[in-house]
Design brief:
The complex is a heterodimer. Chain A has 8 helices and 7 strands, in the order E-H-H-H-E-H-E-H-E-H-E-E-E-H-H. Helix content of chain A is about 35%, strand content about 15%. In chain A, strand 3 (about 80), helix 5 and strand 4 (about 100) form a beta-alpha-beta unit. Classes of the chains: A alpha/beta, B alpha/beta.
Chain lengths: ~160, ~425
Amino acid sequence: MRVWRYGDDVNTDMLFPGKYTYTCSTAEEIKPHLLEDLDPSFAKGAQRGDLIIAGKNFGCGSSREQPVVGLAAVGISAVVAGSFARIFYRASINQGLLLIECPEAVKAYRTGDAVAVDVEKSLVTIGTRSFSFPRLPPEILAIRDAGGLLPYTRARLKKRKSC
Amino acid sequence: MGHTFAEKLLAHYAKKNDVVPGEIVTVHPDHLLMHDNAAPIVKKITADLDVYGICDPSMPIIVLDHVIPAADEKTAANHQLIRGFVKKYNLPYFYDVGEGVCHQIVVEKGLALPGKLLLGSDSHTCSYGAVGAFSTGIDRTEAAALLLTGETWLKVPKSIRIILLGSIHSPVSAKDVVLWVIGQIGASGADYYSVEYQGDVAQFSIDDRFTIANMGVEMGAKNAVFPVDKVTTKYLQSLRVASTQYTAVSADPDAVYASTLNVPLDEIPPMVAVPHHVDNVKPVAEVAGIHLHQCLLGTCTNGRVSDLKVAAKILKGKTVHRDIRLLVLPASRQVYLDALKEGYIDIFLKAGGVVLPPGCGPCLGAHQGVLAPGERCLSTSNRNFKGRMGCKDAEIYLASPATVAASAIHGVITDPRSEVKP
């Protein structure tokens, strides 16, 4: 597992350039351009189970969901950040991508530290120190745990038969 | 204890007497905005739509604006798919290529009204706070689910109050005010918050309020809203919207705010956001003289007739500097027609400008004015992120229409006070 470390205000243009927004929509189209203008080594090197640690306001800017779809498809196990921009935060719930808002953990992290996440206990461990992070309300967790908003919506529609 | 705008409006839509910040509510928005991204949204749920249909066909608004006219086969096929979808489901609110930028269209067509709730799969959906609506951005997947179910959840936000005090002095404009505010609050300072503008707002036209609300998301805000006053009702009357068609929502005098920012309007000079963050603001005077290659006038932030008027007054009888490409992007067909009638387009063309079709143009870097490595653009748009205009090795500065027009003449960032007598 590798930790990718980034700073504050990583915006959606850095995560996925706007010029591709209307030509790349599927995970396979998105993946080669992830973080293209911020860290060209990410798209080549990121692997399932890797983790991102970043500063505050991660995902600010556009509502484009390609960054989230791409990070989920790569298999990023969690993004730990000081804070997140709200549309990005919502989009991550909707794609089943785990976001952890924990400025203390970000501050504690030093290159090379082992990082572990325990979702059940809402704990992120950096080296030997553990930090708790806020738990999502149950009705919102249900969306993420269903694998995202569309599987969640389909299950509800099946029960209701109509909107 | 009184309630904020967001608390009152969301309580109404949640059919509750009372809501508190942090509470999760289920809402049925009046409208759902999509643009060129309606194509990937629809593709996600084509099979589901065949089974369940669209929950509320009067909810979606679709405006083709982001890459118009289509730049290549792929974008053309997306537009084609959207037109087919609109026909199949007989959607009433569809605006094809050339009508304008989605946010301008939503307001101009009277679809955003005081007290209404609008969601949109575009971050600048927050613009409709200009007319007293609650509006905010969502992602594509959520838009897809909304088409199927007509409802979603919202967390009731805490609110920040921004009190505008005093008067602005031409050529200082709403854009300078909002850049100054973002500089104070920071790019994340309003994350998750509802922002309410109060105080001496009567001097700000709906165009001005649009500019300010549009940039709410650049400080992280969920929504940004102005009170509904005579300026609003007069504007809506001009759109033939009667006051019986809406009920304005206003904050209680004893509402509780997380914080308050006082804005001394008289002290604000022409401002500019320098690369590569919107909160990286400085007075224009501090960066005057920086060489430019492109000037962009217009967009959903500053592409209305009053914006073009300010620029036209400065450019009248002048010629754009030979090193500058001046791109003019009216926010809608109606704005374009009005600007033609007023003679502004004539002024821009004679000055050496290029008038683009009403849409998003080069703002998001897809076409029509992409920058080359090492180039610098001064723009009236809302984002200066690295790579935003298609090239990571280019620089974008953000400023008002007056500053962009004055700078286009001189080829360098220019304080508009040198061109316009206050």
